[in-house]
Write a structure and sequence with these properties.
The complex is a heterodimer of chains A (232) and B (408).
Chain A (H helix, E strand, L loop, with lengths): L5 E14 L2 E14 L3 E5 L6 H8 L7 E6 L2 E2 L5 H11 E4 L11 H12 L5 H11 L15 H13 L5 E5 L7 H18 L2 E5 L3 H5 L3 E6 L2 E3 L7
Parallel strand pairs in A: 3-8, 3-9, 6-7, 7-8
Antiparallel strand pairs in A: 1-2, 1-4, 4-5, 9-10
Helix pairs in contact in A: 3-4, 3-5, 4-5, 5-6
Chain B lengths: L2 H13 L2 H37 L5 E6 L12 E2 H8 L7 E16 L2 E10 L2 H5 L4 E4 L4 H5 L4 E4 L1 H8 L9 E4 L2 E9 L13 E5 H8 L6 E2 L1 E6 L5 H16 L8 E5 H44 L1 H9 L4 H40 L10 H27 L3 H6 L2
Parallel strand pairs in B: 4-9, 6-8
Antiparallel strand pairs in B: 1-11, 1-12, 2-10, 3-4, 3-7, 3-11, 5-8, 6-9, 7-8
Classes of the chains: A alpha/beta (232), B alpha+beta (408).
Chain lengths: 232, 408
């Protein structure tokens, strides 16, 4: 098997917050390397810095120090607007609480990243295709309030893949779902990873979810515990 | 994101809270309606005033005693001697004719009906200078003036009040200050003006007025009307009058003790006054527009807070600062633009109602909603939306995606 490209290359990442008087050291020098097509889960107790790490990897936030290359591009020093463009093109987000626009139907929600990318041509068809891929081809004009939790998360998933991102960041994707639809969403995520080779990163508490991933990065007190042991 | 998309999204999010949007634009509606109505009323008033001044007569110059701009010692009155000098073709070639008047307010009565009117003592020249026409009878002649005759011409409004008719009055006798006067004619209507009706007037020979009604000293007159040969020679006539009067009053050095107005001057003054009036009304109305704008800002701030999470999500999927800024600005501009359009319609209705009420109460007065007022209101209300939208939109655009997503 040919050596795979490194998609995520984070070196010695730190992130400090000022919370009132106290300085919180959320990340204290984390190295993460993830290869193209890998399925990785990030675990750790509350306060371990896993959300912060997700924000940095997902380009929502810049590290205090350290270098972060996404797809070979140095993103840790980019401006807000440059980061927005990177998020738009390279990162697909799936959130615990879906984060859909409640007033807009499924189609418009899925189209949203394309709109911000300035794509108008074939936008509709692409969005329909993505919704069909997650099994909601017959629900495109339903609003989030008219969909079940599992269906809403599928819409979010369609939105995450619409721009053919390099990585999908899923933050507790099954946290707000019952076990049946949670399993369906996990299967869908893994299926997409297999079919399109998109790197999948799941932040979770749930060991059952972590067990389905190829590698677990465990965080503890802002540091990676062990060395991200490889399974299988 | 292109413009149509932004507008569609803005409409979507505004329609999610219809009542709130309606209440928000109410402030703008009231403001714009007030501005439109006030400007319309102001413009209507201006048209009426200027129209009535133009109706006074053409090519006219008015000479008053005294200097209106500075104090003058030994101020001399205007006299019949001055009038004669002005009427001299060789001294004043650009003056067609000259008509002095003395004027005052007095009570006239007929068979128990009595009414207060303006009485003008005039000479025969007054007819042509003021462009008077007669409904019946004839104008005052030189014999009446020389003989201090007790004859009177009635303005149409006076005729209405005393006789309830405007014709077949010649030969009747009315009483002015108790003394009997024979009616020799009725004047044609000249229309009302903002300086009081020009039709509520009686004309008597100048000598009669001076000696028997108004008790003026010797040959003093109140105002001299001079008619220039044509409109183009009004400035020359003005200069001639000034020269003659300076010589006669011995004021070649120092300030004039008389003032000459042309009709142009009156139009300018009246125009200035009504403009100030319009601006004043418009300014008051604009304050309510300002209040409406603050209402928009308030609601937009609430909206930004409410939608923090949505903003975070939009940023997460790739919205730049500019995209969020445009989104919220579009909303606030749309709000104020809608308010502006509804306000224009309301303002129009209000000014039409004001016009109706005015004409029903006898003042011919038509408020005019000009295209300029509509443009002004539209641009101004949009600007209000833009101005008061900038702060909330900026706040939205400046949110950190991480913070915004975490917001509950």
């Amino acid at each position: 098997m040919a050596k795979k490209r490194t998609v995520i290359d984070a070196r010695d990442i730190t992130k400090f917050y000022q919370m009132g008087e106290v300085e919180v050291k959320a990340l204290r020098g984390v190295d993460v390397k993830i290869k193209e097509g890998e399925v990785v889960s990030i675990m750790g107790p509350s306060g371990s810095g896993k959300s912060t790490l997700m924000n940095v990897i997902g380009c929502l936030d810049r590290p205090t120090s350290g270098e972060y290359y996404l797809d070979g591009e140095l993103v840790s020093t980019m401006t807000d607007d440059e980061l927005a463009i990177v998020r738009n093109k390279k990162v697909g987000f799936v959130f615990q609480n879906f984060n859909l626009l409640s007033r807009s139907n499924a189609l418009i929600n899925v189209e949203l990243p394309l709109r911000y990318a300035g794509i108008t041509e074939g936008r509709h068809a692409k969005a329909v295709e993505a919704l069909t891929a997650v099994g909601l081809g017959d629900r495109i004009s339903h609003k989030p309030t008219e969909l079940s939790g599992g269906q809403q998360q599928r819409v979010a998933l369609a939105r995450a893949i619409i721009n053919n991102p390099s990585i999908i960041m899923a933050d507790e994707p099954t946290g707000n779902l019952d076990s049946k639809s949670g399993k369906e969403i996990m299967d869908l995520l893994l299926k997409m990873n297999k079919e399109s080779g998109t790197t999948l990163i799941i932040v979770t508490h749930d060991p059952k979810i972590a067990k389905q991933t190829e590698r677990v990065i465990e965080l503890y007190d802002g540091l990676v515990k062990g060395k991200g042991k490889k399974k299988k | 994101m292109n413009l149509t998309q932004s507008i569609r999204e803005a409409l979507e999010s505004l329609s999610a809270n219809k009542l709130r949007a309606a209440l928000t634009i109410l402030g703008i509606v009231i403001g714009v309606a007030a501005v439109i109505a006030m400007l319309a009323v102001g413009t209507g008033a201006q048209d009426t005033v200027l129209g009535s001044i133009s109706g006074i007569g053409t090519n006219l110059l008015f000479v008053f005693q005294g200097n209106f701009q500075q104090d003058v010692r030994n101020e001399q009155p205007l006299t019949l001697g001055d009038v004669e000098a002005l009427a001299d073709v060789f001294q004043a070639p650009h003056i067609e004719s000259v008509a002095p008047i003395v004027s005052g307010n007095i009570t006239v009565s007929y068979e128990g009906e009595s009414t207060g009117v303006e009485v003008n003592g005039v000479t025969p020249e007054y007819e042509s200078v003021r462009n008077y026409g007669l409904l019946e009878g004839s104008f005052i002649n030189d014999d009446h003036v020389n003989g201090r005759a007790s004859v009177v011409l009635l303005g149409p409004e006076v005729a209405d009040k005393l006789f309830d008719r405007r014709e077949f009055i010649v030969g009747e006798t009315i009483r002015i200050d108790g003394a009997p006067f024979r009616v020799i004619g009725v004047l044609e209507p000249k229309g009302g003006g903002s300086f009081g009706s020009q039709d509520n007037v009686v004309l008597v020979p100048i000598t009669t007025a001076r000696v028997r009604l108004l008790n003026r000293e010797r040959d003093h007159v109140d105002v001299i009307f001079a008619q220039a040969v044509d409109a183009a020679s009004v400035p020359l006539a003005n200069e001639e009058i000034a020269q003659i009067l300076r010589t006669r009053h011995r004021t070649e050095l120092g300030a004039d003790d008389f003032t000459i107005f042309t009709q142009e001057d009156f139009l300018t003054v009246a125009g200035t006054i009504t403009n100030v009036f319009t601006i004043f009304l418009g300014g008051i109305a604009a304050i309510s527009l300002l209040v409406g704008g603050i209402g928009i800002m308030n609601i937009m701030l609430v909206s930004v807070t409410e939608r923090t999470k949505e903003i975070g999500l939009r940023k997460a999927v790739g919205a730049r600062k500019k995209d969020i800024l445009v989104q919220f600005l579009t909303e606030s501009i749309l709000l104020s633009l809608f308010g502006g359009i509804i306000g224009i319609i309301f303002g129009w209705i209000i000014s039409a109602v004001v016009g109706r009420i005015a004409s029903a109460s006898g003042t011919p007065f038509s408020p005019t909603v000009g295209i300029d007022a509509i443009l002004l209101a539209t641009i101004f209300s949009t600007a209000v939306g833009l101005f008061f939208g900038i702060y909330p939109a900026n706040r939205a655009a400046g949110l950190e995606p991480v913070e915004a997503l975490r917001y509950e």
